Amino acid sequence: MNKGLNLVRALSPGFAWYIRPQRRNFMLSESQSPNLVRFSAYEVNLRAGELYKGGRKIRLQDQPFHILAMLLEHPGQVVAREELQRKLWPADTFVDFDHSLNTAVKKLRQALNDDKKKPRFIETLPKRGYRFIGAVEFPTKPAAPPQETSTAAASNSVGRVAKLSTDNNAAFALVSADEEAAVEKEKLDAANDDVGLSLLIAAQRLLLVANGTQVRILEVQPAGSRCLVRILEGEHYGKTALVPLSVVE
User: Which of 19, 61, 109, 183 gives the lowest tally of CB atoms within 10 Å of its CB?
Assistant: First the structure.
């Protein structure tokens, strides 16, 4: 196996291979682009590398976000496939470029609920590249961040039966079995350590839980960002897990 592909075998049913390109620093300078770009119901913070819809953060992997950033740099203009390859996949990266690019664009379209055949945002020009065709705005000031849910209000959720709702309608959510696993997961995510994540999955310290699984909220953390839940169905029935409040409906 070519080491450049950074492939990790996922140790859980339903996942054959976990593939993640290496993370690269892709920050736009002040002279290149404004920090914020808005289109339709979406807002993109280019400097922070974050995508929002209606004030809610949408999870988007590095490569799809970088493609979006490059397209937003030149709205209405064609960004060539060769240019995307040069900036996002260095010459020493051993990867099936066509497959990787097509996959990244597909994930971007999924995040934007865009249709390849009838695009609102991302237009494909066969064998040439891609073009952003949506109307964009460049606000001079950031929109006011949505107010955080107070601890008291969040506590009212305790005892409620809810459903996991993953970002981008992903099939599974990766949740932590306890606080220690949650902290370790954050470190591994920051380091792009897919091997470490796979080992935590194998040790059942991280759980792959299907989207839409029913859970009961047992406790809301003081910061109001995560909650302890009991899984009520599926492979991990009866187990407890820490999940972000943002994925509990």
Answer: 183
Q: Please report the pLDDT score of residue 122 as a whole number.
A: 92
C-alpha span between 41 and 144 (Å, rounded)? 15
* Interstrand relation of 18-19 and 36-39 (parallel, antiparallel or unpaired): unpaired
Grouping H, G, I as helix, E, B as strand and the rest as coil, residue 166 is coil
DSSP H or E segment with residue 99: helix 97-111
Residue in this structure with the two tokens 């914020």, named with its chain if needed: 36
What is the pTM for the complete model shown? 0.46
Contact in structure between 97 and 108 (CB atoms under 8 Å): no
Which H, E and C letters describe 50-89, residue by residue? EEEECCEEECCCHHHHHHHHHHHHCCCCEEEHHHHHHHHC
What domains does the chain contain, in order, with CATH numbers? Answer: 3-132 (1.10.10.10), 151-247 (no CATH)
Rounded CA-CA distance 143/36 in Å is 9
Q: Which two tokens stand for residue 184?
A: 């370790």
Give residue-wise pLDDT tens across range 131-160: 999 888 887 655 545 444 444 555 567 888
How many distinct helices (H) and strands (E) make up the chain? 6, 15
> Do the bridges between strand 161-163 and strand 129-132 make them parallel or antiparallel, or are there none, so unpaired?
unpaired
Closest CA to 143 of 52, 209, 63: 52
* Cα-based distances in Å from 10 to 19, 44, 151, 200, 201: 9, 31, 36, 10, 8
Q: CA nearest 21: which of 4, 42, 46? A: 4
Instruction: Report phi then psi at 228, rounded to 5.
Output: -95, 130
What confidence tier does 84 reach under pLDDT thresholds 50, 70, 90?
A: confident
